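Worked example (supplementary).
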Amino acid sequence: MKRRINHDGPLFSLFALIAGLAIIVPLLFILRHLFEPSTDAWRHIRQIWLLAYIRNTSVMIFWTAFGTALIGTYAAVLTTRYTFFGVRVLSWMLVLPLAVPAYIAGYVYADMLSYTGTVTRFLRLVSLPQLLQPMTMAGAVFIFVFTLYPYVYLFVRAALKRQSAAYAESALTLGVGPFRAFFLVVLPLLRPALIGGVFLVVLETLNDYGLVAYFNIRVFSFAIFNAWFSFGEVVTAIRLSAVLLIMVFVILVLERVLRGHRRYTVHVKGRVIAARPLRGLARVVHPFCLWLILGFGFLFPTMQLMHYAVLTWRNTLNMTLFYNFMNTLTIALGSTALIVVIALMLANFGRFRPKGWKRAWLKATTLGYAIPGAVIAIAVNLFFITVDRQLYPLYRWLNPASPVLVLSMSLGMLVFAYILRFMAIGYNSIEAGYDKLGETFTEAAYTLNHRKLSTLLKIDVPLLKSSLFAAAVIVFIDVVKELPLTLILRPANYDTLASRIYEYASDEMIQDTGVASLILIMMSALLIYALSGPKKRGRSAHVRPY
Amino acid sequence: MRKLLVVALLITLGILLSGCRFGSENPEQVLTIYSERHYDTDRDIYALFEAETGIKVNLVRDSADPLITRLQNEGADSPADLLIIADVGRLHRAKTFGLLQPVASTVLHENIPENYRDDEGYWFGLTRRARVIVYHPARVNPSELSTYEALTDPVWANRVVTRTSTNIYNQSLMASFIALWGEEAAKDWAAGLVANFARNPQGNDRDQAKALLAGVADVAIMNTYYIGRMSVSSDPYEQEVAQTVGIFFPNQATTGTHVNISAAGITQHAPNKEAAIRFLEFLVSETAQRLYADANFEYPINPAVEPHELLTSWGAFKAQDLPLSSLGVHATQAMTLMDEVGWE
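After joint prediction of all chains, the assembly is encoded as:
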């Protein structure tokens, strides 16, 4: 063991240390505000709003988690265990709602159901009243559920595909009905996947600002911005995000406690359950439900956006939009590449059963995902300004006329913030890939005296190809959709599709977001197609080790 | 795979190091503006300034508070020359934070009426927006309308809509009342208004106008600006909304209609103060003001420039006679009071 590590020096450890520091230090910049004395704004918020914030946030998280778990699992089970007309298309298309940012869906649904909206106008035409109130808690949960369920769907689907037929079949042989077998055997085994997916959903929900602000739903992310906006108080904003962090932590601990000492790792050696055809009425009902889910999450909003695009493309489809698109594409590709590479190094550091401080350190590097975007933005901005001031002598040496702020005026600051924010997604996907892979191949390479780096590049990377690609796709989509960081940290004269959409929307010109939104959604949709679209036979065979 | 990785890394590094941005170039004299305004009109005006002076305008755009925080963080090293915000209360806040510096310019003094610039010269108004009562003509006769205060009358129970209390336009409206009537009276007004709300506040200004046509409410408190924008919306149905509703300027016989301004201040550590003053003077010139008025449905700050004809068709109005810095002074208090009376 010792000798092996000396091959390239402590390559991965050193890397993990640096990456960890780069992520933790900026956060410390902001956390020290926690211990400053209370302000009037904090007292005011605590007296009037804090309970409401906690209640609303809990309600929103609960129903969103419940809804996505239900729909995600339902869709995953149907598309893996049954065959029916259109299942191949559906099974990848059901991931598409991931490409639709919740804030865009929010604007679109609110408009469709408003007085001038498509749905209301149609209902007026047929003399029916429009009774749906989109801008409510229920409306927000609806939108979160139908745009975020793909996280659960992806996780559960992958788990179902690996689940051996033996368990369910034993249950059936022992005389348990298929329904009970599902709830007693199949579902409990899905628990880690389900939790993993739902946890991502919860974090995304907690981090959304655009939708809850527009709908005026008093949840934490809204409160954090509001403390900052209305009271001009960064300290209160940070304090609120600390409360939020504690809530996230409690949820995590709760899950650990409920899980107890049970283990869920199942190694598939046996057959996977063969898909059966749907029969009778189910042949119609289930596919209809799935298309409806896809409709709510993707098809309907996209169709409405197309309508907007037709109305406004003359004004909005221009060179500026092309530059915005190129900016989005390059920064997303660059950030994604960096995140995947760093995550790969971190995952290597964390392989071979990390314990104690090693584990804690790895956890810390993925903290960014649980912290509200606005708070990360302030932290990163402060950090970069400090670094710039330290580096000023160097800048002056290179260029006597150099300003003090160089890095903090560059795109690097935004890329850094993306890395901090989305490291968890990249890391978790790659770690899961390594889990599936096991250690034998790498061990063998080390035994054969391969160096660490060449082992990583020649053995691990090819074996992990599909995990790396999956990680890259999800990170890319998240970067493309990201809003608060992009708005706060982008350099002068720099616009992305998301920031452009935000500007139109904040000027209440939802129709003008049409073209930009469609491009943004299509970029992500294409990647989703590449990731999970119908595969040529035999291609996956040499990718997967088993 | 290895090649792919190397290529990807090289591209990334290239982008990062060069700071390359699509659609930008490198000029000699640069003016850096931190602005909350993000309208195409503003961009056109800046382009005009660039063409006229050869000074390149660098624009950093975000909401007011992130920009203010950023200025604070950057301190003396900030590259910003000018801060432009669509709410005078925030500029006042920037002034009290010591982020701005006073400027004396006869051009600015001549083109901007006294009450629309800071008396110490820290900020200068660029455009004005009026917050008015919008009504549905089928259900409300304008003769029934008089003042903001009258909307708290039980006659209007379940008939009023407006945005949330987190919205800056409502906060500055409330702040103006605190300045005019004192805290108690302003709080009573807010409580009375909340009691008459037809629904929980939600959506943006356009949504309030739509609520009138949907029959949810009969009157809405909103900005004239958005009626103007809706009248040229790409959605023909929004145009219909703008054409249907009526505009009423409240408090004409008393304190005047509430007005907020977009304003600009030169930053404390502006590296290019000269150019910044020149730019400010340009923004209030008749050329630039004409563009603001015609394309963006805002009331020009320069009295020599007529508003857009749609705005003139609503008639002239008397604005609140109030030092606008009071909107900033009472901003936090306004927010607190609105929370206390349950204005969501």
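Two points are worth noting when inspecting this output. Chain A touches chain B through 77 residues (CB under 8 Å). Residues 9-38+312-534 of chain A form a domain with the MetI-like fold fold (CATH 1.10.3720.10).
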